[in-house]
């Protein structure tokens, strides 16, 4: 069935590309071994997976998804699926999608999956053998491919992030999906709302830049078709809601907004140098808007704030309250987006990491991002920053940096960091003996060999 889904033997690829994919598969397979072990072994995933995939695996683990989950009968089926699909806005785009994507992909032995804005599969297209093979692993009409349902996969990541991406073989969280590669791209309404996802899936040849470029081009063409339809219908194009003359200039200069979300303290907003405490929800929304300068539709923002799906009315009420705190014209609508720059300590931390200034990054890192927040979008940012900072600390081989990290709450029990710190200290010094004693305590407590953890860069 693997060969059926892959569409036969893939064409010869460049040696470098094949080697890269082989290494990716090997590291991902190794990561699955640590995932199966669970517990403290999860700390060893960093460095084995691409950052985007690592963050998704961590979310999948937190969500309680079982990598060995077997296919079940859940999903939208029969007449219910037909009614839902026919009424969905993306139905009007299917002739264009068929012409641009489906026909060529089917001839190439690949499949094309069209999903809604929540990751539910509306239709699967291709040769019957490949479509049947895809159905056997859970890519079938009516199934839910959202990340929170089946873990890491291309459609689920597009729904989660709003960005085109690809996932190859064992990078998928579920074992039953390891035989496929998927490249997916989002389709947005003219007002910025996500309405669907297009994916090409098949064997390893899908893990090529030109395949992702193809699906992105088809998604862009679909979006342009929606714009033209809106114009012909006389609705205009509300996509970016341009600022009224002088509006931004009047607000941006005096605002000088800053946001502090790192550490255990109350989130703080700085307005022209004056600090104001923010509620958790307002801080979450404001940080998410800074992370998405292109804007967020209400549906997308709801998914980033709450896995149980907030309704649009709740989002509108929260935005209204936020505007009363930060100013009525700071946040635009359709989609929600910032009209002025909001400087954040997250932004400053990333800048320090990008420049390689690890000491400054450690000074800026007062603690995790909004540590009391369980919003999926915030958890993503929190995990990303911690993984990036920790990886930079371990790679620095700087005794001062490692000392500072291991002295802090997040590095205090970090066996790999202690092992790295030990390697920078003279064996005859009293400090070496102290570090060695700490590592032995951690070995007993964690049941893991710290030097082995260091080897895998965790």
Descriptive overview:
Mean pLDDT is 82; it is low at 6-16, 237-255 and 448-458. The two termini are 36 Å apart. With 458 residues, this protein is of the alpha+beta class. A hairpin with a 4-residue loop joins strand 1 and strand 2 (121-125). The protein has helices spanning 2-6, 15-37, 51-62, 78-87, 94-107, 128-137, 147-150, 154-161, 209-232, 247-255, 280-291, 298-305, 312-326, 345-354, 358-364, 376-396, 399-407, 415-422, 430-446, 450-455, and strands spanning 111-116, 121-125, 165-168, 181-188, 194-202, 257-260, 268-271, 274-277, 331-332, 337-338, 342-344.
Question: In a few lines, what is going on in this structure?
Answer:
The chain is α+β, with helices and mostly antiparallel strands and 458 residues long. 51% of the residues lie in helices and 11% in strands.
Biggest beta-sheet profile: 5 strands, antiparallel
Number of strands: 11
Q: Largest beta sheet: what is the strand line-up?
A: 2-1-5-4-3
How far is it from the N-terminal to the C-terminal residue, by CA?
A: 36 Å
Radius of gyration, in angstroms, nearest whole number: 24 Å
- The average pLDDT value, as a whole number, equals 82
Note the beta-strand portion.
5-15%
Provide the low-confidence segments as ranges.
Answer: 6-16, 237-255, 448-458
Q: Which quaternary structure do these chains form? A: single chain
The best one-word shape is globular
The helix fraction, in percent, is 40-55%
Quickly give the structural class: alpha+beta
Number of helices: 20
